[in-house]
Amino acid sequence: MRIAVCGTKGGSGKSTLAGLLALCFADAGKKVCAIDQDPQATLTTWLRSVGGKPAPWGEGRKELEEVYRTWTCVGEWGKNESPSDKHIWINDFPPASPQVLLKMLGRADYPTANGKQYELYDYLLIPCRPAVADIWSIRSFLAELDGYNAKVRLVMNALDNSLMSKAGSIESLLEGVKTPRTKATLSRRTCYSVSMVSGWKALDEKAKSEVLSLALELSR
């Protein structure tokens, strides 16, 4: 399964979503390859600090045609094991304009065991906070995604007890947006930040349940 996490606005929770999914799948016994294309390298720093290893086929931080990519293996990988379609691929993209993101999404040229290139993602996840500025940004991106050949899903993120996080307010904010939302949502939880230091074990049961629900939804 190949998952792209992207959006045009910084601070929406892209790296957090990508990292939590990577840790969740790894905890479930899956082999995960996390690809970080953000120059800030948040996902790379996070996963390697909690046991992730540089991928032998993409050791270290690389610059390819002015696009940064770093590969990190999470889970129990064999020493000489090569990536394949049976593994989980999670790509964290930097915030960028819709046009730039579309160009990057169309260049999913990650190495495979047989030398072929991936062409499409199975899911394109767009984290969405209950904030007006985030919705504006998402609307402009979705307008450019019309006809994109992947399952595009909004993931409601950083929900709390505020009025903006209530179901009615979210429906109003997203009025006219036809892109489906995942049934699973992520709340605003301190332990998500703590997991960047201590990994999956830092999450309480409620947090683990949220992330696991999303991972299971994507796996169906």
Write the layout of secondary structure elements.
Layout: E1 2-5, H1 14-27, E2 32-36, H2 42-49, E3 53-54, E4 62-64, E5 67-74, E6 88-92, H3 98-105, E7 123-128, H4 132-144, E8 151-156, H5 167-173, H6 190-198, H7 205-219
Parallel strand pairs: 1-6, 1-7, 2-6, 7-8
Antiparallel strand pairs: 2-5, 3-5, 4-5
Helix pairs in contact: 1-2, 1-7
Task: Describe the structure using short key phrases.
220 residues, eight-stranded mixed β-sheet, alpha/beta, Rossmann fold, 7 helices
The separation of the N and C termini measures 11 Å
Determine Rg (CA atoms, Å). Answer: 17 Å
Give a short account of the largest sheet: 8 strands, mixed
What is the CATH class?
Alpha Beta
CATH-defined superfamily: P-loop containing nucleotide triphosphate hydrolases
Strand content: 15-25%
Whole-number tally of structural domains: 1
Unreliably modeled segments: 108-119
Write structural notes for this entry.
Helix 1 crosses helix 7 (205-219). With 220 residues, the protein is α/β, with parallel strands linked by helices. The longest helix has 15 residues, at 205-219. Residues 108-119 have low confidence and may be disordered. The chain has helices at residues 14-27, 42-49, 98-105, 132-144, 167-173, 190-198, 205-219, and strands at 2-5, 32-36, 53-54, 62-64, 67-74, 88-92, 123-128, 151-156. The termini are close together. It is 34% helix and 18% strand. It has 7 helices and 8 strands, in the order E-H-E-H-E-E-E-E-H-E-H-E-H-H-H. Strands 1, 2, 3, 4, 5, 6, 7 and 8 form an 8-stranded mixed beta sheet that branches. A hairpin with a 2-residue loop joins strand 4 and strand 5. The protein has a single domain (2-219), classed as P-loop containing nucleotide triphosphate hydrolases (Rossmann fold, 3-Layer(aba) Sandwich), CATH 3.40.50.300.
